[in-house]
Structures are given as structure tokens and as C-alpha cells.
Design goal:
The protein has 194 residues and is of the alpha+beta class. The chain is built from 3 helices and 12 strands, in the order ββαβββββαβββββα. The chain starts with a strand and ends in a 10-residue tail after the last helix.
């Protein structure tokens, strides 16, 4: 079995500026902000957002900072930091922390490392259609690794932390003929550096 680690550098998302509706007592309208954040994220990843939660009772005041939490359908979260730009409810927000990994980053990172470790063998990694994987350290997802002329091999990808690191282990029958997984997981393969 093989254990490799790759650091993706975290999730790169969007940031946006928007106006919050004023309430009678100069409080931010969390529902309006939640809808705005969700709309922007859904533009990039349709159907992937389960919920957006912003705190109630935030006073409208220039420089105020607070956080909202986005829950993605894979079960992970993305922390959004919000800064009020003025006393009228105009804000700017940006993602600052995420417990999820972008599927595309995982697949690309694995393909590059596996191809490099095996002298340029073309490798394809598929982890499903969901835009996000994981959700917390220790979360796993099943992916498939394939190469021309070889039967696909199952691999378990594990999210190592909330900072973009993940590792993988091939599943295989060591008693059988040399499979793609055994070839790629050979002991002479150098470990991947985070």
C-alpha cells in the first residue's frame, strides 16, 4: 500500500462587495447577505451549496468584521469573513478558511504526482462529479486511477487537514498480477512532498 501527501494550497474562491439592507435599528440584514453570498458561489459551483449562515444583530458600522459559514453539500464548510465598508451596509467578503477540497485540485494534484513518480506514465484520476471533496480532517472519498492499457484501480483519498493537504492509498490484491495500483504504489516510488 502507498501513502502520498499533496498540499493543494487551499481553496481559491470568490470575493464580493454588496450592500446589506438596513433594518429599523441600523442592523445588518443577514438574510440578504446570505442570499448574496450563496448566489455568487452558486454561479461558480451550481447546486453545491447547502446553506449560508450569517449572524443576527450585527450593528451597521464601518470597519465591523464578522464571519459567515457556508455549508457545502459534501458536508464541509467554508468560512467567509465580512468587513463593513461604511455605516450604510456596504460590505466586502472573502473566503478565508475551508474544510473542503476542490475535486479538480485533488484530481490534478494526484495526476501530476503519479505521472511524475512513474516516469511520465499518463494517469487519469476521477473522483466523481461533486465540485468539493472532504469536509474535515480524516474525511475520505473513493477515486479511480487509470492508465492506457490498464484496468482502473480504486484509491481512497483522505483529507489530512483543513489547509489543503490530502493523501491516498491504493486498494489492490497483492496476490494477483501487477495492477496499476501496485505499479504506482511500488516501494521504489519516492514519497510526495506537501
Amino acid at each position: 500500500m502507498s501513502h502520498r501527501t499533496v498540499r493543494t494550497g487551499g481553496i481559491v474562491l470568490l470575493s464580493a462587495t454588496m450592500a446589506l439592507a438596513l433594518a429599523a435599528c441600523k442592523r445588518a440584514d443577514p438574510e440578504k447577505l446570505e442570499r448574496g453570498i450563496r448566489s455568487k458561489l452558486e454561479e461558480k459551483w451550481p447546486g453545491s451549496i447547502a446553506a449560508v449562515d450569517c449572524p443576527d444583530g450585527i450593528e451597521l458600522k464601518k470597519g465591523n468584521n464578522f464571519s459567515c459559514t457556508v455549508t457545502v453539500k459534501s458536508g464541509g464548510t467554508i468560512q467567509i469573513d465580512v468587513t463593513q465598508q461604511d455605516d450604510d451596509g456596504n460590505v466586502i467578503w472573502k473566503p478565508v478558511a475551508s474544510t473542503v477540497l476542490l475535486t479538480e485540485q485533488v484530481e490534478t494534484g494526484m495526476q501530476e504526482k503519479l505521472s511524475e513518480q512513474r516516469g511520465g506514465i499518463a494517469v487519469t484520476v476521477e473522483c466523481g462529479d461533486a465540485p468539493f471533496l472532504g469536509g474535515s480532517a480524516g474525511a475520505t472519498v473513493e477515486c479511480t486511477v487509470s492508465a492506457p492499457g490498464e484496468a482502473p484501480v480504486a484509491v481512497t483519498v483522505t483529507q489530512d487537514d483543513v489547509e489543503g493537504s490530502f493523501s491516498w492509498k491504493f486498494k489492490g490484491d497483492a496476490a494477483g498480477p501487477a495492477t496499476l495500483g501496485e505499479r504506482l504504489a511500488a516501494p521504489d516510488s519516492p514519497p510526495a512532498n506537501p
